[in-house]
Write a structure and sequence with these properties.
The protein has 97 residues and is mainly alpha-helical. The chain has a domain of 66 residues. It contains two helices and two strands; from the N terminus they run E-E-H-H. Strands 1-2 form a two-stranded antiparallel sheet. Strand 1 and strand 2 form a beta hairpin.
Length: 97
C-alpha cells in the first residue's frame, strides 16, 4: 500500500482494474488504399494547395497595391485584411452548415 503526503492510504491497483485488449477487436487492420482514406488525403492536399495559392496571390498583389496607393507603410494592413476576411468567411460558412 502506498500513502499520499497527507497520510491517506491508497489501495494497490489490482489486475482486474487494468483493461485487457480484446483480440477480436484488433482483426480490422489499417488499409491506406481504401477510397475513404484516399478522399481524406486528397482533400487535405487540396486545402493546402488553396492556402498556398492564396498566399501567392497576396504576395503578387502587394507590390501593385502598394504602388497604387503610394504607401509602403500599409503593407501590414493588406495581410491583416486578408486574414480577417478569411476568418469572417469561415464564420459565415460555419453558421450556414
Amino acid at each position: 500500500m502506498s500513502t499520499k503526503s497527507n497520510g491517506t492510504v491508497l489501495p494497490e491497483p489490482s489486475v482486474q482494474d487494468s483493461p485487457v485488449p480484446d483480440p477480436s477487436a484488433q482483426d480490422v487492420s489499417f488499409n491506406p488504399r481504401t477510397p475513404s482514406f484516399i478522399l481524406v488525403i486528397t482533400s487535405v492536399y487540396f486545402a493546402f494547395f488553396l492556402i498556398a495559392l492564396d498566399r501567392m496571390i497576396i504576395a503578387t498583389a502587394v507590390p501593385a497595391i502598394t504602388n497604387s496607393f503610394d504607401s509602403i507603410s500599409d503593407i501590414g494592413w493588406y495581410v491583416s485584411q486578408s486574414l480577417a476576411l478569411h476568418t469572417f468567411n469561415s464564420s459565415i460558412y460555419t453558421l450556414r452548415t
